[in-house]
Amino acid sequence: MTSSASSSPTTPPAPEPPSFFVDRSLGVTVTQGLTAVGWRVTSIDSVFEDHAQGVADEEWIEYGGRRGWALLTKDKRIRRQPSFERAITPIFALSNGNISLRVIVQRFDDVRDRIWRNAQNPRREFWVVYENRVERQYP
After folding, report:
1. Residues with Cβ < 8 Å from 15, sequence gap 6 or more?
2. Is 1 part of a structural domain of the chain?
3. Is the pLDDT of residue 33 over 70?
4. What is the CB-side half-sphere exposure of residue 90 using CA atoms within 13 A?
5. What is the residue range of 106's domain?
6. Staple 71 to which of 16, 44, 91, 135, CB 3.0 to 4.6 Å?
């Protein structure tokens, strides 16, 4: 007689979530909200002094990339700025930054699988996060 444990298919453990670095534009509340729903995130405020007010885009982008963290922001303009050249990990930007913090967390989490899958690619890419999809943007 076989035990039910040996006859049932085993479910592999869920993969570890990738790590993300959250831009000042999203704020601590978004970082806390994403953490609450299972994301592994570090807020720029927790790394740089004075709420990262004096930190240039090049600096935080390079800092996160050196640690292998994908980047989250609501500043789509980064893709067209020299700071994007400093990226060595993917950047995910909201299509619309004028939404509530609760909706921002929901928007990222609604497309979590796609973001997490692409966040694990150690290369410079720019993705825009829409309400129900994520699209890669080319420079």
Report:
1. none
2. no
3. yes
4. 22
5. 15-137
6. 91
The pLDDT tens digits of the residues spanning 44-95 come to 999 988 878 889 999 999 999 999 999 999 999 899 888 898 899 999 999 9
Radius of gyration of the chain measured on its C-alpha atoms = 17
CATH of the domain at 130: 3.40.50
Total of domains in the chain: 1
Q: Tell which residue, 95, 71, 101, 67, has the closest CA to residue 83.
A: 71
Compute the distance between CA of residue 53 and CA of residue 76 in angstroms, rounded to an integer: 19
Structure tokens at 11: 């479910």
Asked if the structure places residue 32 within a domain, the reply is yes
59: left (phi over 0), alpha (psi -120 to 50) or beta: alpha
* CA 110 to centroid of chain Cα atoms: 13
